[in-house]
Amino acid sequence: MANGDEVELLDETTLANLGKEELLKYTVNLTKLFSNFLALAKKNESDIAILRNTNDLLVGRVNSLEQKLENQEDIKRTTIRNSQYLRNKQIEIKMLPADVVTLKIPDLKVKMAELLSLTDTEVTSEDIGKCHPLGAGGKTIIMEFREREKRDEILQARKNLKNKKTELAEKNCASIMILESLCRDYSKLDFLCRRLKSRNVIHDTWFFNGRLFIKKTEFSSKEEVSHINDLYNFHDKAKIDNMLSRD
To answer: Which of 159, 180, 201 lies at the terminal end of a domain, its last residue?
Structure first.
């Protein structure tokens, strides 16, 4: 009828036919089983309470880490914007011939003023505060205007160079490009956006007045990109990270 902690549950007919000693033994075994069950249930309640407390602690820590990550992202966005703001008077002129890039100041400022004036915006060497090659042996000049307004005029008027191919060719500068000078973080984001565009992941991308924009489709609204998470939100993170290798 009962072996160790095992108790066979009997129906009413069987119980009615048990003798006194058998009934007593059955009752004792059943009582032990019930006591063991209560002890196990109490232990389980204790274990569940511990698990609940541990879970609450972990949830709290995860929430805290998520908040820290959000704060770090906000700080990073602000840092990127501030870094770019410091360049709000600067432009870069790319694809310049070596005989221009290697000019000494003030001759370089005079030459840059002549080239930029082809945009139909009058520029003199006095408008230029700083001007020097960017990187060793490169074809790029980085320059800073004394006033931001002059920089903005040039960026607005650079499209006029399309009609000055003859004049640019005469100066051996037929392929020059005038761009906003980007801080390191924005330069990386700009590169990624252009790569996404070339792979038809997004429809368009452009940088203007210190801000980077994309359009995911031809008919979608423009969206600003100021942190790499903005790209992770709609495209595979591993693929974007792989693009940074510039393969």
So the answer is: 180
What CATH number is attached to the domain comprising 136?
3.30.70
pLDDT band at 2 (very low <50, low <70, confident <90, very high): very low
Quick one: which of 235, 201, 15, 186 has its CA closest to 87? 186
Q: Could you tell me the residue range of the domain that residue 71 belongs to?
A: 14-87
Evaluate whether 84 touches 98 at the Cβ level (below 8 Å). no
Q: Is 197 exposed, middle or buried (0-12, 13-18, 19+ CB in 10 A)?
A: middle
List all residues 6 or more positions away from 194 whose beta carbon is below 8 Å from its beta carbon: 205
- The dihedral through the CA atoms of 72, 73, 74, 77 has a sign that is positive
- The reported pTM is 0.69
Mark residue 4 as left, alpha or beta (left: phi above 0; alpha: psi -120 to 50; beta: remaining): left
* Summary mean pLDDT of the chain: 88
32 shares its domain with 106:
no
